[in-house]
Amino acid sequence: MKRFTALASATVLAGLMFTPVMAADMTVGFSQIGSESGWRAAETTLTKQQAEERGIDLKFADAQQKQENQIKALRSFIAQGVDAILVAPVVATGWDEVLEEAKDADIPVILLDRTVDSSKDLYMTAVTSDLVHEGKVAGEWLAKEVGDKDCNIVELQGTTGSSPAIDRKKGFEEGIAGHANLKIIRSQTGDFTRTKGKEVMESFLKAEDGGKNICALYAHNDDMAVGAIQAIKEAGLKPGTDIKVVSIDAVPDIFLAMENGEANATVELTPNMAGPAFDALAAYKKDGTMPPKWIQTESKLYTQADDPKAVYEEKKGLGY
Ligand code: AHR
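^ Those are the sequences you sent over. The predicted structure of the assembly is below.
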């Protein structure tokens, strides 16, 4: 193996120094998934801003939700000889070959917001939240909220095969484990979009006595929750009261819903994944310092008690 590994081993010996420095004169390819959610839009905006502030030439490719487009984009970045690649992988599997190609070309790859099932040797680091923990926080919040009451839960999953869909499901199940009164009665993908969230929620409501049999909705992101809230209202029920709503991301619109009493809780996912990624690249470029394999971002729970109007005002201009 070439330069990448040689520098990597040298810096592992030197310890995990992590000095944020400018990474000017770098060309970085970014393969973004698409624009399925408000959170994704904010991540795109922030990545472009962060690149500009640091004088990085960012080559942006929108994969429109298709892994094959992401693989093509990565190959094109490799052919162009970029200094590094950022990729937000739409699904967790199927990355080995193209990651090997990047490694052979000595181009470090950083995963943003989602993980892959490839060997850790094939990428430099992953900047992500603890996706299992997010789901667990949501589940624990709901268990506490409903107490001893029987509660039938419907779940809107993210994109099938994506790491947040897999991990947020697992985490939520862990969060409600030991509470026999809480049961997931229906679970289906809403692909992280408002439209599908609404569509699938409509089918859940129809199948469950117009929603009378549903006590709570757990959505793997806020956008699906916002779509589902609309479906609940159209079914003549009160979201947030008749059906509790808990989701993940903390996008501005969910705070408006919380302010109106139509959503109950959300777990924040920062859209600034690029900042830590560019810091890691700058340090690597400067003296070969390797970042840890996982740069973990924070996950914070917000409820209606957290002044949702104020949080909405803070977040609304941030690119969501
Ligand atoms: O990978 C992060 C997830 O992808 C966000 O929670 C969701 O909104 C997005 O589509």
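Residues 1-21 have pLDDT under 50 and may be disordered. The longest helix spans residues 38-53.

Shout if you want it in another format.
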